[in-house]
Amino acid sequence: MSKKEKKPLSKAVGEWDNGFSDREKIDYIYNEIRNAFLADRRYNQMMRVNKLQLILRGSASKNSANADSDDVDIHCNFNCDVDLCDEKDNVEAVLINRFGEDYVERHIKSIVVLPKKKRLKVDLIVCRQEQGYVSVWNDDTEEEEAFYPTKDQSELGKRNDATNGRFLNMVRAFKTVRNMVCEEHEGEYHIPSHTIECMLFWVKAKTYKKIRDNNAEQDARKLFLAVEQSVRARLKNIEDLDEATEINGIKSLFSNWNEYNIVLEFWNDLHDYLTSNYDFER
Q1: Closest CA to 55 of 77, 88, 81
Q2: Residues 6+ away with beta carbon under 8 Å from 130
Q3: Which domains does the chain have, with CATH numbers?
Q4: Residue 253 gets which letter from DSSP?
Q5: Which mean pLDDT values do the consecutive 10-residue runs of the chain (282 residues) have?
Q6: N or C: which end of the chain has fewer CB within 10 A?
């Protein structure tokens, strides 16, 4: 029996992170959104003093049903006391001024910039940093609501900035693999995106920052392998649930050992899936 031919992991990692060719498209629309805000005098000043951050997120906006896998998710995060309803109105006007009324749609929790030519679709969330959580405006209930827990939002942004975007590159890649593994083991478990983000946040920033190869694809492959190994080792060696915290470093990621065992089983399945289908050797 012939040995199973395995797929090149270097190419796959690029595809799981929206593909190396799409990186330029993501950067392009992010800069277009940023330029729209910079063109507004008030938002320009707020961004200069860090009262407003545009944070590129790695997956479809949470609790939003209007996003698909090709969306670019951006959080417009206010680090000051603002009225989110007013700011959502203002942001909508800024985007219409930049992209045109026909290409901007307002949804319950997001504002969508529709694609055009090389421009990818954007799902933008207007939110405000609170003490312990992030708030968002809900057009349906006409109220502000807790949207993202703890201080995770700002910490994710800091980690991504500190690693030149590599942290969220890996988050995107591992979420894509998560979907593939969960589909193969349909019904056995559900692994939330927040869990993936937290586990990858366990990996030290220097792991993401290290340059391993002059070739972008090979460097991404080696980083992917290092992150997978680090998370697997951390999971296998947990003896107290307090050792496995969320991004805030305080709250335990797992409420009980059953939740932990489900995630451990998933990560073992992920490892088996990768080694069976890709040239996974280090």
Answers
A1: 77
A2: 146
A3: 20-149 (3.30.460), 162-277 (no CATH)
A4: S
A5: 72 71 76 95 96 74 33 88 97 97 94 88 90 85 77 76 87 89 87 88 92 78 94 95 87 91 96 90 60
A6: N
3-class DSSP state of 104: strand
The answer to whether 18 and 29 are in contact (CB under 8 A) is no
CB-side neighbour CA atoms (13 Å) of 25: 18
**Residue 104 pLDDT:** 97
Within 13 Å of residue 131, how many CA atoms lie on the same side as its CB?
Answer: 0
Concatenated DSSP letters of 25-85 = HHHHHHHHHHHHHHTSHHHHHHHHTTSEEEEEESSSPTT-SS--TT-EEEEEEE-S---HH
Length of the chain: 282
Q: The whole model's pTM is what? A: 0.60
Tokens of 181: 């593994």
Burial 160-193 (b: 16+ CB within 10 A, else e): beebeebbbbbbbbbbbbbeebbeeeeeeeebeb
Output DSSP code: residue 281. -
